[in-house]
Structure formats: structure tokens, C-alpha cells
Amino acid sequence: MKLLTNQIQKTVRKSASFAHHKPTKFLRSVSLVFIFIVVFLLVFTLLGCTATGSTYADVYAVKFTVDSSENGTIAVVAGYYGICGISSNTTTTTTCAALGNLTALADFQYINTSTSTAVDLVSLAKIVSDELIHPTVFIVSLVFVLSAMATSLVDLVCINPNTTASSILKSISLWSCIISTLLCGIGSAWAHVAANTLAKVLYESTGGLVTASIGRRMDAMGWTSFSFLWICTAIIVLCAAIDAYQQARQANITEVLYEQEGPDTVKYGLPPATVVRDVLTVDGTMYGRQTHC
Questions:
Q1: H-helix or E-strand containing 40?
Q2: Residue 111's closest CA among 77, 75, 84, 57?
Q3: Residue 202: is it exposed, middle or buried by C-beta count within 10 angstroms (0-12/13-18/19+)?
Q4: pLDDT tens digits, residue range 178-236?
């Protein structure tokens, strides 16, 4: 009989140790999926215009377009770490180069327009990449996103939710999400306002000779990342509220048991907030107090 009682205690303790984790496990898994998507979006945002493939060349902050008297329509797009030139004469040709070495874009410098005016779109795009938009905000945001993903994953898979380590990991994950959300929002707004302002000013100052437009794909990726991070932050806050409520409920039930029945009621090591109705009835014998929680 003593062996049976000990086995019941171990089973109930084990189930109660993870009981409060079950309602929030699904929500935390969803937040991890969103964070994983945000990582890819931020990485592709930073790598825009670093390669000639459409996956990278179509991700840019600003696009400058001019009608050349020799080569048709010429466009130069600016990203965080690279610049691409696009020539659309008979066929579309794309050439990309890193900011540190723009010699491959020599053909896109000093373009003769229809009014015989030479325009250097490469230098203009380089000014945008170096001065107007800056990758630092998104890089720091990405670091905090990776921190949130790592801590959430370790807490969800490896750590007992009732331990101090789990509480620390949850706090790190929450604050990492909050900081990354703010930084991502600031970076997206900064790039959006800078690109739109430049497009309007450039068009007016050149009399429509050079047109500029904002990169819709990069803009959408930035705001999507911000939205997903906001959702992740809300989910983590909701999970923290649920955990706090369940801990308070457990503490209240423990206090009530001791006040009403004394320590003998919980002498078999039954944790709070445990429905013992189905656990302690063995062969018609009740081991402990029947409790409905």
C-alpha cells in the first residue's frame, strides 16, 4: 500500500509540474513560428541588391530611373549593402555590386539623358545607401530577434516550467521581443519616410528628368516583420499573464487546504490545483481529500 501511495505521489507531482505549461505551450509555439519568419525577412531585407537574382535585386529601398539617349531606360536601385543597375534597351540586363566596390557599375555612371545632360545615378544611389538609410537598426533588431528565438526554444523544449531558469528565459524572451519590435518599427519608418521624401524632392528638383520610387518589396518586408514581432510580443505577454494567474490559483488552493483540513490533507505531497478525484481513488479506498478544482 505504501508503494502504491508513493507511486501516486510521483505521478501527480510530475503531471502538476507541467500542468501550467500546457495552456501556453501552443501559443509559445506559434510565436516561435512568427519569430522564425521574421528572421528570414530581416536577413533578406539586409541582403537586398547584393546579387543579380530577382530574389535579391528586387529588394531595394529606392529606385532611380532616367531615359537615356543611347540605351533606353536606365534604372539604379539602392539597398543596404549593394547597388544594382538595370538596363532596358532591347533586353533587360541587371548588374549588381557591393558598396565597397562599384567598378562593375561603371556603365551606369554619367548617363546621357534626352536633354544631353549627364546624370550619375550610381553616386546618387551610394549616397542613399551610406547616408539616408542605414542597416544598424535592422542588424540590432535581428540580434534581439535571434535572442528571443533561442531563449523561447530552450524554455519550450528543455526547461521545466516551474524552475527559476524558466522564469529568467521567459523574461529575456519578452524583453528581446519588445526591443526588437521597437527597433524594427523605427527602421521601417525611417527607410519609408527617407525614400518617399527623396523621391518627391528629386522629381521636383530635376524637373522630372530623374524619377525615384520606393522599393515596395523591402517596405512590405519591413512592416511585415514589425507586425509579426508585435504579435509575438502580445503572445508572450498573454502567456506570462496566464502563468501568473495559474501560480496565484495554486498558491490560493494550498492556503485553503491548510486552513480547512490542516497539513494532514496534503501529507501525501499533493500539489495545489490538482484534481485528485480520479487519481486517489484506488479499489474504492480514498487516499487523501477529494478536491474539485
A1: helix 22-46
A2: 75
A3: middle
A4: 999 999 999 999 988 888 888 888 877 777 778 888 888 999 999 999 999 999 999 98
Three-state DSSP state, 275: coil
Are 261 and 276 within 8 A, CB to CB? no
**Distance, CA of 131 to CA of 143 (rounded, Å):** 22
Classified as helix, coil or strand, 270 is coil
- 111 beta partners: 119
DSSP 113: B
Label the pairing between strands 211-214 and 62-68: antiparallel
pTM reported for the whole predicted model? 0.73
Q: Which amino acid is at 103?
A: T
In 3D space, the residue among 39, 63, 95, 85 whose CA is nearest the CA of residue 221 turns out to be 39
Q: Which helix (H) or strand (E) holds 247?
A: helix 216-261
Cell of 61: 529601398
DSSP code at position 101: -
